Structures are given as structure tokens and as C-alpha cells.
Amino acid sequence: MDTAQKIISPQDLDRRPAGKLVFTNGCFDIIHPGHVDYLERARSMGACLVVGLNSDASVRRLKGPLRPVNDQRARARVLAALACVDFVMIFEEDTPLELIKAVRPDILVKGGDWSVERIVGRDVVEEAGGTVCSIPLLEGFSTTKTVNRIVAMHRSGGNG
User: Fold this and answer.
1) Backbone torsions φ then ψ of 53, nearest 5 degrees
2) Are the C-beta atoms of residues 132 and 119 closer than 8 Å to each other?
3) Per-residue confidence of the chain (160 residues) as pLDDT tens digits?
């Protein structure tokens, strides 16, 4: 499937394969090996992985005025190009709650920096009989740390 066809709205989910639908979300600003590992493990939990992607305005509200580094179209395109990602949906709100209600995933996944109790949409998914889990993150990778390192190198005149 062409990557552009993987960037959809909730109404387009009728194209999904049969089986358990896994949902996760995030900013995914600068894709790194930690993201890839996380998304591959999330995808292995079901037949279809839907990634909710924070819009540019949402990322700015959550991460500050210097973010995102890459705009939402670029971030969505990169995510859609990953074999483990079946669909990408951009959402404008600060949390994916409304998107989770629309998608109705069987499995809701977040990274290990989120306890299950804090995962937005947990109640919606569990009330429908679904599963919510937090999976460990690959250590040593962080978009925020990467951005901060680039800014610090720029300020010091370093080149890497």
C-alpha cells in the first residue's frame, strides 16, 4: 500500500484487516530506534496497528514552541512508511481520547514511561473488554534529549 493511503481518518478504518486492532499514540517528532522498537512490539500484539499522531499545534502545546521539528505531514509520512504501522491518524486535541472512542481498539498501548493507570482512554478500552498495557522503552533514545543536544551543540559552536 502506498504510504499516503495509510494516513486516514477514523471513518476509513473499514479497510482494516480482521483481527485485534492495536492503538498507540504520540508525537513521533524525530523517529529513532526506540520508536521503531516500540512500534514493532506494539504491532506484534495484534493484526493491525493504528498510530494516533499529535498535530503540530498539539505538539507545541505539549512540548513547547520549538517543537515539532518536523511538521505533521512529514511525521505522518515517515510513520506510514514503517512496515509495522498499518494506519496513521492525526488528532488535534492534547490527548487521543476522542480518537480512541472513534477507533475502539482491542488493545491500547503506551510506552513504559506511562503507567497503565495514567494511560488516556484506559477506561474506554477496558469497559469494551479490551486490554491496556505499557511496554518498556528501549533505553538510550529520546527525541527531547536529541533536540536538547542539537541546541547545545549549536550554542557552543560545535559540529557534532
Assistant:
1) -110, 125
2) yes
3) 688 899 999 888 876 678 999 999 999 988 988 899 999 999 999 999 999 999 999 999 998 898 899 999 999 999 999 999 999 999 999 999 999 999 999 999 998 888 899 999 999 999 999 999 999 887 766 666 776 676 677 677 766 5
Domain count, the chain: 1
Q: What is the Cα gyration radius of the chain?
A: 16
For the whole prediction, is pTM greater than 0.85?
yes
State which residues form the domain around 34.
Answer: 3-156
**Which CATH number is 121's domain given?**
3.40.50.620
CA distance 107 to 69: 29
Contacts of 49 (CB under 8 A, 6+ apart): 22, 23, 24, 39, 42, 43, 84, 85, 86, 87
Output the CA torsion sign for 9, 108, 85, 64.
positive
* Chain centre distance of CA 8: 14
> From residue 117, how far is each of 23, 45, 54, 106, 108 by CA, in Å?
16, 20, 21, 17, 12
